[in-house]
Specification:
Elements: H1 9-38, H2 46-71, H3 76-103, E1 115-116, E2 119-120, H4 125-151
Antiparallel strand pairs: 1-2
């Protein structure tokens, strides 16, 4: 990654998110181990495990976004919003997994009726969230990827 690009807000945001997601992965790893150590079957609740793994995976995805933002040919405003969209949904997903892990309310957030703790969610809330997540994550990355391809002169 070019050091001059470290000044770009899109790169700084992505690197900060990578650090925060990685730290979350490490902390949820301790949480996961505590459950495993206390369980006669050495198992952890589903969403504690998912939160741990997702945070680690998303930390590396955020590094990838930082690299693509640093190398993108687009103006920084475009890079910033293209990076922010997937990063925000990565954070929301991790937060939802941690919340389900804390509440111990489900082993499958897609099972109907959708709920958070005892509170039912509106019928189409999860579907709308997943559509927005897909558009933001895929769309944001496509913009950055196109910026990289543009920098290489391939488009």
């Amino acid at each position: 990654m070019p050091f001059a690009q470290l000044e770009a807000a899109s790169v700084q945001l992505s690197l900060a998110a990578a650090g925060l997601f990685f730290l979350t992965g490490l902390l949820t790893g301790v949480w996961k181990y505590a459950h495993m150590a206390a369980s006669p079957q050495a198992q952890t609740p589903t969403y504690v495990d998912i939160a741990h793994r997702a945070a680690l995976f998303y930390s590396f995805a955020a590094l990838l976004i930082a690299a693509f933002a640093a190398l993108s040919a687009w103006p920084e405003t475009i890079n910033f919003w293209a990076a922010t969209a997937p990063l925000a949904f990565f954070a929301l997903a991790i937060g939802a997994y941690v919340l389900h892990g804390l509440l111990g309310d489900t082993d499958n957030q897609f099972r109907r009726p959708h709920r958070v703790g005892p509170m039912p969610l509106p019928r189409h809330a999860l579907l709308l969230f997943m559509v927005a997540l897909s558009l933001a994550e895929i769309g944001g990355f496509l913009v950055l990827f196109a910026g990289l391809l543009r920098r290489f002169g391939w488009i």
